[in-house]
Design brief:
- The chain has 487 residues and is α/β, with parallel strands linked by helices.
- The chain is 38% helix and 20% strand.
- Strand 1 and strand 2 (11-17) form a beta hairpin.
Length: 487
């Protein structure tokens, strides 16, 4: 059997598959986020490790004697987070997460001192990326920077705790702005611009390669053999691609999780920083991918449900009962609760309800949120299309994949068939387990098959007119707000 661990922002998921790729057991547990100041977003790496150990114990109990059949472990994780380790391997401060936007000024400075950034890293300097975070720490927390010995990404901290080895993979490393994405190697020039060098960086392997084996202490604590290997793994979206079978050029999917991502596989390195499109290494060798990324997606709905005290399931049922007239007259919602990446690269963008009145009940506002997030995905599709990328259909993964209403709305807005899959909400954990299988010799064509299709949603042309009118208003609303913020 093969174990996949997916370190997300809101929870950690673990999943076990057998030699036929079938799910044997799965379990998840929530995480907390600390926001000590506006625009800050932090987590405790020690909490990640505690939750992971809890999940291992829960899965061990579910599997019984079959637990010992686990041969390998794959890792998936939230990208860009900065885990800072000192001399003893202890964390120096809480991890600064991908949706932390405190380092906007450092992005400007990085672009100025490293004019080669776009050609090497293939991406704009955005506050979510790792390198600007280190520039911020260097400037604002010099006592911590002076003690720094290693920078790890979130999932690689779990690997370090599991194996005592400091290793990362190409897909996750591509999100640091320190990787030469085409050459799949650290860039000495970009590291130097941050007063770092390779000694601060983990080793690099491909996501489907062996990175290490479990340490004797962890193997004993987990009831597994020290011969259990840990695969390179990858950033959450690249690993979700493995889970949904997006491994060949043109394969695409939408992930509706804390963030919203439109992901497409490329046969070659295809940077497009001018469009705020991300170009990263895939979790498999000799492949790359493009992404459009919005920072708040399903998390917008979670935020709203917490405020009004209703479950997402109950709210979605109410939304589905709305008439076409109610939806057409619903307020517009800008989903920029944490700023935005594609296409605006605007860390100061904010969320907005525009056009509320006495008839704006909680279901109508809930619809506005789902529609606004879907319009944000449409912005991303437009950015990808401008680079020459052609997308014919998209799979849907993440927590949002559980909503058939949302899947149909995405199809109507994007004008594309949307495919949901059996177990689509577990894409990252499944992909991690699949990488674990590949690392010990599994055949890619067999291991990375697309999961069984649950349903195909096709565009409803009857809704195109009102949705496209509202989409145009949505786009204008952002620029009107930008003008207001710049006054």
């Amino acid at each position: 059997m093969y174990l996949g661990i997916d370190l997300g922002t809101s929870e950690v998921k673990a999943l076990i598959i057998d030699e036929n790729g079938e799910t044997v057991a799965t379990h998840s547990a929530p995480l907390t986020i600390q926001r000590p100041q506006i625009s800050w977003s932090e987590q405790s790496p020690e909490e990640w490790w505690d939750v992971t150990n809890y999940l291992i114990a829960a899965l061990q109990e579910k599997c019984g004697d079959n637990w010992h059949a686990i041969k390998s472990i794959g890792l998936s994780g939230q990208m860009h987070g900065a885990v800072l380790l000192g001399e003893s391997g202890k964390t120096l401060r809480p991890a600064i997460l991908w949706n932390d936007t405190r380092c906007a000024q450092e992005c400007v400075e990085f672009e100025e001192v490293a004019p080669q950034l776009h050609s090497i890293a293939g991406n704009l300097a955005m506050p979510g990326f790792t390198a600007p975070k280190l520039l911020w720490v260097q400037k604002h927390e010099p006592e911590i920077f002076s003690k720094l010995k290693t920078v790890l990404l979130p999932k690689d901290y779990l690997r370090f705790k599991m194996t005592d080895r400091k290793v990362s993979d190409m897909s996750d490393a591509a999100g640091t702005l320190w990787l030469d994405v085409e050459k799949r190697d650290w860039s000495d020039l970009l590291l130097d611009k941050c007063q770092l060098d390779r000694s601060y960086m983990p080793e690099l392997v491909e996501g489907s390669e062996i990175s290490a084996t479990l340490s004797k202490e962890v193997a004993e604590a987990w009831g597994l053999s020290p011969s259990v290997i840990v695969a390179g793994g990858g950033g959450d979206n690249a690993v979700s691609a493995i889970g949904v079978g997006a491994v060949n050029p043109g394969d695409a999917f939408i992930s509706l999780g804390t963030s919203g991502v439109l992901f497409v596989v490329n046969e070659k390195y295809s940077p497009a920083p001018e469009s705020a499109v991300h170009a990263f290494c895939h979790a498999l060798p000799n492949r790359w991918h493009q992404m459009s990324v919005m920072l708040s997606a399903a998390s917008c709905l979670q935020w709203y449900c917490r405020i009004i005290g209703v479950t997402e399931a109950d709210l979605l049922m109410e939304i589905e009962q709305l008439s076409l007239e109610q939806k057409n007259n619903a307020p517009l919602f800008l989903p920029y609760l944490s700023g935005e990446r594609t296409p605006h690269n605007d860390p100061n963008a904010t969320g907005i309800f525009h056009g509320m009145n006495h008839s704006s009940n909680r279901a109508v506002l809930g619809y506005s949120i789902i529609e606004g997030v879907s319009f944000g995905i449409a912005d991303g599709l437009g950015s990808l299309t401008k680079t020459g990328t052609d997308i014919r259909e998209c799979s849907l993964v993440g927590g949002g994949a559980r909503s058939q209403f949302w899947a149909q709305l995405l199809s109507d807005i994007l004008g594309l068939p949307i495919l949901t899959h059996k177990g689509g909400e577990t894409g990252g954990a499944l992909g991690a387990a699949r990488l674990g299988c590949l690392a010990i010799g599994g055949d890619e064509t067999e291991v990375c098959k697309k999961p069984e299709i649950h349903k195909i949603f096709k565009p409803n042309n009857n809704y195109q007119t009102y949705l496209m009118t509202r989409y145009k208003q949505f786009q204008e609303l952002y620029f009107n707000d930008l003008t207001f913020r710049n006054k």
